[in-house]
Specification:
By secondary structure, the protein is mostly helical. It contains 4 helices and 3 strands. The chain is globular.
Length: 102
C-alpha cells in the first residue's frame, strides 16, 4: 500500500476503496502517512471497511486527518474494524481539524 501511494498517480486519487483487504494497522499506518501528504489533497472518499484495523492504525489515520489542512476528504468508512476507545479518540481529534468530512 505504502509503495503504491508513493507513485505520482496517487496525487490524483479521488476515491480509494480498500474494503475487505485485511490491511491491519500496518496498512492503516501507511494510509495515515499518505493522508498527511500533499498527494492526498484531492482524496474525497476513503473506504477501509472490514480491514482488521485496530487502535494503532486508527491513531495514524487520525493524525493524517489532523495534520493536512488541504485534505478534502468527505467520506471515511471504518466500519467493521477492531478500533477501540483509543483509536476512536484519535479519529475524533482528527475530525476536529477536517471540516469536509460528512
Amino acid at each position: 500500500i505504502a509503495k503504491g501511494l508513493e507513485f505520482k498517480g496517487a496525487l490524483n486519487l479521488q476515491h480509494l476503496d480498500l474494503r475487505n483487504n485485511k490491511i491491519g494497522d500496518v496498512g492503516a499506518t501507511a494510509i495515515g502517512k499518505y493522508l498527511q501528504s500533499e498527494g492526498a489533497s484531492k482524496l474525497e472518499k476513503l473506504n477501509l471497511n472490514s480491514n482488521e484495523i485496530g487502535d494503532g492504525g486508527a491513531t495514524a489515520i487520525g493524525k493524517g486527518l489532523q495534520f493536512n489542512g488541504a485534505l478534502k476528504l468527505e467520506v471515511l468508512d471504518l466500519r467493521s474494524n477492531e478500533i477501540g476507545d483509543v483509536g476512536v479518540t484519535a479519529i475524533a481529534r482528527g475530525l476536529e481539524f477536517n471540516g469536509a468530512l460528512n
